[in-house]
Amino acid sequence: MSETNPAVPGASAAPGDIGAPFRYTAGLAAEIEARWQDAWEADGTYEAPNPVGELAGDPAVVARPKKFVMDMFPYPSGSGLHVGHPLGYIATDVYARHLRMTGHNVLHTLGFDAFGLPAEQHAVATGTHPRVSTEAAMDNMKRQLRRLGLGHDKRRTIATIDPAYYRWTQWIFLQIFNSWYDDAAGRARPIAELVAEFEAGREVPGTTRAWAGLTAAERAEVLGGFRLAYASESPVNWCPGLGTVLANEEVTTDGRSERGNFPVFKAKLRQWNMRITAYADRLLDDLDGLDWPEAIKLQQRNWIGRSEGARVDFAVEGHQGEPVTVFTTRPDTLFGATYMVLAPEHGLIDSILPAEWPQGVKEAWTGGATTPAEAVAAYRKQAQTKSDVERQTEHKDKTGVFTGAYAVNPVTGTRIPVFVADYVLMGYGTGAIMAVPGQDERDWEFAEAFELPIIRTVRPPDGWEGEAYTGAGPAINSANDRLSLDGLDVAEAKSRMIAWLIEQGAGEGTINYRLRDWLFSRQRYWGEPFPIVYDEDGVAHPLPESMLPLELPEVDDYSPRTFDPDDADTEPETPLSRNEEWVNVTLDLGDGPRRYRRETNTMPNWAGSCWYELRYLDPHNEERLVDPAVEQYWMGPRDGMPHGGVDLYVGGQEHAVLHLLYARFWSKVLFDLGHVSSVEPFHRLFNQGMIQAYVYRDARGFPVPAAEVEERDGGFWYDGEPVKRELGKMGKSLKNAITPDEICDEYGADTLRLYEMAMGPLDVSRPWDTRAVIGQYRLLQRIWRNVVDEATGATTVVDGEADEATLRALHKAVDGVTQDMAGLRFNTAIAKVTELNNHLTKAGGPLPRSVAESLVLLVAPLAPHIAEELWHRLGHEDSVTRRAFPVADPAYVVDETVTCVVQIKGKVKARLEVPPSIADTELEALALADPGVVAALGGAGIRKVIVRAPKLVNIVPA
Q1: Mean pLDDT to the nearest integer, 29-49
Q2: CA-atom Rg of the chain in angstroms
Q3: Cα separation of 868 and 881, whole Å?
Q4: For residues 376 and 420, is the Cβ–Cβ distance under 8 A?
Q5: CA distance 735 to 695
Q6: I need a labelling partner for 936 at 20 to 30 A (CA). Which of 502, 878, 896, 906 fits?
């Protein structure tokens, strides 16, 4: 049966009960939701005006307080969304809707981080261009997100694969390339200013020649040592079986590729890097001004890894070149350094290797090789197959090989052997360590394995034997005729040792960082091309802005060249390098037409997400990255936000370090160069939890379709066989994904929104239970029934006044929901709405119009479609989105009375109903006069009365 609703033009009843054609059903919900989504889009309901520019709007709206609310970029997966994906999107939508109703100009939109490996893998497998599959995935996700009623400003949506977008990603890269970090000024400056200093006579590092006497290639090499984006020989994870370099996150703990399970080797390749290390201190210090979870701040601090210590030089016997330099946080233990270890990748190894083994070398040190060079080569090949994680695993057998060389301990004068071992990494410190086995567990294990001396330099507790002592204590065994540390505590010993090293010219106090420069190259097709070309001398030249965007060319084969998986002696051949017409070009870069070769690596997928918050602000600006007035309005520093940034950024904890660190780095460079006013990209960060689901596994441990599992006889069965159940992630590969489309079809989008918000605190992971969704569906049905006659579709409200009990229930709900919205406590907000609606249902009779309208306004941020429908059925023509959120009357929020518990010896003896404002003295008198208390005391004296008005009185008898 279908019947036009005269209250709302265009509205019709969905199929339902014969006697209740206007009952709120999934069918009616679908009709309501689709209709209002169309209306919001046509009306531009969620469009946020800028103060200037193409998106400038009503000055009165711009004059309101602003809020910029953001979700972390979604990747457009070909499989679409499952119900776990929209959790954060719904939460930010609820929050943004409440902000609009409290008088804010709210920027809330969503784009797509659309470059990525999955689309490229699909292209390799099918021959379909990655853009085709990516755009199809984006279209599907846009449809799914629209169905949820998300209030995004669609004018601002972006995709990283759009050349109009990545033109500006390339432009930012060029700003970074054309900059250097001036330590004295503490900020980035244009590289042209450094060149001017060299031309004016500043000393050129690495040479005694003047700038004017250097060749173009020599100048480029000098500037490469300063540029914030530079190319260099970098240690990388090379996977011949895949034909590409992998990020550390793409390598398993046993040194194989996560995709394909191929061996991964350490290799040195010329790669682009970002000099993020120049910003290490600022990245650390500015965390203090951010409203982020402490756990995320701690992860960033640990990743940057600032540590104070000393650099110490160890001369190598018979080697006239540079010494082996180590960084140590414990220079006080130098007297206990009995050997040295270099990482297999260390650049000095080959130059210090003697031609033959020294006399008397232990056989266990040689690895069975006839010469040091042979031993080191074999060990390097072995180490190449291990990941950094595997090399750092504690309690694994320590391996290594002697180089045949000896260094000299600068404080003792003792000659100590130099080993190569994989437990030392080039990624931290200098890639070399002074080994002090008495004070380091890994050094102790290595020393025992290779029969090396162990000297304790810190007194351990009595009875401490058989292992390294890493704690504090007085220095021991640390004195000779040159220096004495014995008896000093660690801090004093450090200070005295550093002073001695400086005096002797053997070292200096310094600060070290765990943070390494950001490897910024990928040997793949589906990514942003570098706006860089090389001349015949190999000098890199930036493309002028007029040549941006440099678009991806067409290629015949999207896969990099692969090799024998076990052949480490190979190098990448990228897909772009095969398009000779694109790679080799004639360009006029200002000095006449010349032949150039393009860079054939592409940027990593992090690039586009390093700055997307800025493009949301001014998405159609073709003249500049962002209009300064627009950026200042939405992201500039203000009270409580000393570094500026997005007001609220919501996403998963998996991006705690890399994405957030990279985006912070780019933001600081752009700030230093005067392009933005915000030092930080994201002021407030909130990490939502994960929606989990049950995974069912058969006897082989393989997942089976969760939807086809039966629960019977106290167990779980699939296809007649028992299966095991465990709680885990939701996803296609685990065969337990549930799409939002399924839930919307069965219950409606508003029900899905309510259920996801009601499942628990937003920052806590929670299990999905489809059977529980119906609870929120029934809540919406009861709200609908309290306002609409299910037989006629007309509203049932009256113009009378609400009784006091209803006013108290209403204003308590308004007060509680308002506070919960500000704190992102949507589960408790829904509980308060439910409590209010239950009161209204139990009260019976038609609702007063004022109460019905307040109820609808309370529901509007959470379930916008039904709220919009009810608002219009109540006779309003404007959108509920633009109405003010209800304000609680304090007189009705405070209870008339509260219950006070009276205890004697911890046991409850009376309960008193008292005014909330009662004074301590008055409450004490009432408690002592209560007949139950008098009887319980039985005439006994009173030693003490503890009053916590208005809720507790505790009496302590004498």
Answers
A1: 97
A2: 35
A3: 8
A4: yes
A5: 8
A6: 896
List pLDDT tens digits, range 847-880: 999 999 999 999 999 999 999 999 999 999 999 9
Which DSSP string corresponds to 620-684?
T-SSSSS-HHHHHHHHS-BTTBTT--BSEEEE-GGGTTHHHHHHHHHHHHHHHTTS-S-SSSBSB
The pLDDT value recorded for residue 98 is 98
Q: What pLDDT is stored for residue 389 in this prediction?
A: 65
- 154 C-beta neighbours (distance < 10 Å), count: 16
pLDDT for residue 17: 60
Sign, CA torsion 685/689/690/691: negative
Number of neighbouring beta carbons within 10 Å of residue 831 = 16
pLDDT at residue 602, as a whole number: 95
CATH of 307-512, one of 3.90.220.20, 3.30.200.20, 3.90.740.10, 3.30.70.1170: 3.90.740.10
pTM score: 0.85
Q: Which residues have CB under 8 Å from 797's CB, separation 6+?
A: 787, 846, 847, 848, 849, 852, 874
> Are 748 and 779 spatial neighbours (Cβ–Cβ below 8 Å)?
no
Of the candidates 147, 168, 149, the one whose C-alpha atom is nearest the C-alpha of residue 158 is 168
Sign of CA dihedral 298, 302, 304, 307: positive
Token pair 């180089």 in the structure block, residue: 403
> How many residues are there in the chain?
958
Q: What does the DSSP assignment read for 766-816?
A: EE--GGGHHHHHHHHHHHHHHHB-TTT--B--BSSPPPHHHHHHHHHHHHH
| DSSP state letter for 886 | P
- Helices 749-758 + 26-43 axis angle, to 10: 90
Reduced to 3 states (helix: H, G, I; strand: E, B; else coil), residue 567 is coil
Residue 209 and residue 894: Cα distance in Å, rounded? 81
- Which residue's entry shows tokens 């600081």? 668
What's the pLDDT at 957? 92
Query: Where are the alpha helices (H) located in 385-440, listed in sequence order?
Result: 388-392
Share of the chain above pLDDT 70, in %: 97
The yes-or-no verdict on residue 7 having pLDDT over 70 is: no
| Spatial distance between the Cα atoms of 341 and 331, rounded to a whole number of angstroms | 16
From-to residues of CATH 3.40.50.620 in the chain? 47-160+612-687
Task: In whole angstroms, give the CA distance from residue 946 to residue 64.
Answer: 49
Please provide the DSSP assignment of 278-289 as one string: GGHHHHHHGGGG
CATH 3.10.20.590 in the chain: give the residue spans.
895-957
Q: What's the pLDDT band for 16 if we cut at 50, 70, 90?
A: low
Contact, 336 vs 477, CB < 8 A?
yes
Cα separation, 161 vs 73, whole angstroms: 13
Q: What is the pLDDT of residues 515-574, one digit of tens each?
A: 989 989 988 899 999 999 999 999 999 999 999 999 999 998 888 889 999 998 898 889
- Using CB atoms within 10 A of its CB, is residue 463 exposed (0-12), middle (13-18) or buried (19+)? exposed
The closest of 873, 841, 833 to 750, measured between CA atoms, is 833
Q: Report the alpha-carbon distance of residue 250 to residue 271 in Å, rounded.
A: 18
497, 484 Cβ separation under 8 angstroms: no
User: Are the C-beta atoms of 712 and 744 separated by less than 8 Å?
Assistant: no
Q: Which residues contact 674 (CB under 8 A, 6 or more apart)?
A: none
Distance of alpha carbon 847 from alpha carbon 787, whole angstroms? 7
Residue 387 has a pLDDT of 66
Architecture, CATH, for domain 895-957: Roll (3.10)
Give the mean pLDDT of 403-424. Answer: 96
**pLDDT reported for residue 560:** 84
Q: Where in the chain is the domain with CATH 3.90.740.10?
A: 307-512
Question: What's the fold here for domain 47-160+612-687?
Answer: Rossmann fold (3.40.50)
